[in-house]
Design a protein that fits this description.
Length: 214
């Protein structure tokens, strides 16, 4: 059973949250001004919980882990789970679990601790990777066109369907690319590359902005 946090514990967590700075926070205004609503928009979704898992999905431990994540993907590109918690395929026995911020640092328990408990003493690994990456969300009717300027994957909807996530490169930066709906993509670059990739995406979006009026 989850324990109830004391007021002091809650205040401490609030102070820590308030002191954090996301990898692309300094680009927030540029993302807003460079976006064209309905055509292509860019924003950062900071502080998502991300957990790296290594486990044999068909094992007893895999089944226990899957009960928390809403399943584990069986093939490249597959995403399992629904709603807040999703698992992305990285390899036959390697997965990236993505969930909202509150899943990471809940005072009454966390996604990491739940997954660690599910794995138990069986063979495998659970690693908190939340600080390793950030999340960009690219949305709009021309989002795919922006990505196609640098991504070597075939992103046509017949091939790259909604609900697919793969490892690829954007602007020579390794990322996870997750198509969450027909016009919405989530991009997971490593934190150290967030500034470069954010500025690259802004530049790639520039042609869709309305010309300035003298």
């Amino acid at each position: 059973m989850a324990e109830t946090a004391t007021p002091a514990e809650t205040a401490h967590v609030d102070r820590v949250r308030g002191a954090r700075r996301s990898p692309a926070e300094h680009l927030a205004d540029a993302f807003t001004s460079g976006s064209v609503p309905g055509t292509v928009t860019l924003k950062e979704i900071p502080y998502q919980a991300m957990v790296g898992i290594r486990v044999e999905r068909t094992s007893d431990a895999g089944a226990r882990v899957a009960s928390i994540t809403g399943g584990l993907p069986a093939t490249c590109g597959e995403v399992t789970g629904a709603g807040a918690v999703n698992a992305l395929w990285l390899g036959p026995t390697e997965f990236l679990v993505v969930a909202p911020e509150e899943s990471h640092d809940s005072l009454g328990g966390s996604l990491v601790s739940d997954l660690t408990t599910a794995l138990g003493s069986d063979e495998g690994q659970v690693v908190d990777l939340s600080a390793n990456r950030t999340t960009f969300e690219l949305n709009g009717s021309h989002a795919r066109a922006v990505l196609e300027k640098t991504c070597s994957l075939d992103l046509h909807p017949r091939v790259f369907k909604a609900g697919t996530a793969v490892s690829t490169e954007l602007a020579h930066i390794p990322v996870m690319l997750w198509k969450t709906s027909e016009e919405n993509y989530r991009i997971f670059p490593r934190a150290s590359f967030a500034d470069f990739l954010g500025r690259w995406l802004l530049d790639a979006m520039r042609e869709y902005a309305s010309p300035e009026v003298p």
